[in-house]
Amino acid sequence: MRRALRSSLAVALGPAVFALWVFALAVLRPVRARADDYVTVRGAYYREPSTRVIQPTVEVERDSPTGWDVKAHYLVDAITSASVSAGTSTDSIFTEMRNEAALTVRKRWDRSEVSVGYKYSTESDYWSHAFGVSASQRFWGDTARVGVSAGFNLDTVGSRVRTPECAKPPSTTCSLDGVFGGLTYTQVLSPVALAQASAEASYLDGFQANLYRMVASYGYEKIPGKRLRNALAARAAYYFPRASLALRLQYRYYFDVSPGDLGAGDPWQIQSHMLEVRAYRPLTRDLSVRLSYRQYLQSKASFWCDVAVDPGCYVGARYYATDPKLGPVHTEYPEVELFWQAESLREVPVLGWLAAGTFQLSYGHYFQNTSFGNAHVLQAGYTLPY
Amino acid sequence: MSPTRERPRRAARRRLRALLAAGLLAALGGCAHRPPPIQPWQREHLAKRGMRFDMPGETEEDRFRQHWLGSREGSDLGYGEPGGGCGCN
Fold this sequence. Notes:
The structure holds two protein chains of two kinds. The longest helix of chain A is centred in the N-terminal third of the chain and has 26 residues, at 2-27. In chain A, 7% of the residues lie in helices and 56% in strands. Chain A has one helix and 18 strands. By secondary structure, chain B is an all-alpha fold. The longest helix of chain B is centred in the first third of the chain and has 30 residues, at 3-32. The radius of gyration of chain B is 21 Å and the shape is flat. The interface between A and B is large, with 107 and 50 residues.
């Protein structure tokens, strides 16, 4: 039944997504400027030794005076990869395109809001439909906000080179379904401080391995089909008026389990800790900088072992994988970003219309302890309020 | 099921219950202490870029970051939206 739903979604939602875009553009026609109406165009570039990703994106938000808001984005991922880095037995260089479109409609009231969203992503061997709904309520004189969100996704995984074992004939693809729920609480603590706490969980059921990656002597990797992913996070921001400096700190604790298998027999048991600090400071009237540093530590999945170090470690194992991200991972990511309010372009011929917007340019270096190797990350964007 | 396997499960369940109870108590404790109101004219700094968790421009940037982090780290999630559509299994 889900497979039928997936197929009919694929057929029906192509035109539907187009119709939603037309609707969005109609709603987005310029009527009255509001503070939160904006359009953002971005380009992102990710490069590591064996993989290159180029991602152009456009995002538009239109907030209507009636309280109905629409937000939409469209992006393309162009991924060039030498697949041996991900553990496949034979290397092959390929370029793949992924298209993603999303639409969110929000209704605002005085202190509450409800959003409904849909996201569709397609590439040559992976298709995803994600539906989400969220609601939030502000109280205590707008100093506190509680948000809840829930959603589900129906994904289809295929292979360009073979029919996977998980496919149920006559289909040649496998499915991955997920449900998601989250709770967020944000509190303004003082005129210069706020904090946020959140909890999220996602249950995945279906094919979660890679259809191309193999484990020497065992064949294509095999990964548990059920997974319960959980994350607890805390964020705080503090502003130092004398230094014109905003500091933001985030910590996230992640743990996953195999549902119904808590304890020693759990094949997952990945845990991770993420700590990130961001500092924002103006350099001149129009130019400001953001410095950030992120550190991530992850334990390996219970079933995972390093076959490169111990080739016989999977003997008699029920699951086996060479996916580097399921092993012990330690990454660091320092980044610098510049924001430029383009006000000084106002008197420049032809470019004057850009003056109301903000340009962003960032560079980060991603240090990884895995076989993927370190990466350069470059992003450039422009946001225009209208 | 063997008792040796059952024991860690019970312990894990006990720990989970204790964690949930502690979270609930902390939340209720928060309700008992209503924070002082922040007037509109005191919110100048809260509107600044670094003090907004939903700043336009930054959300798109974080989405891209989450996309590649999700394919390089084993613990996606925790950023306010479900996974899927990544194709980076």
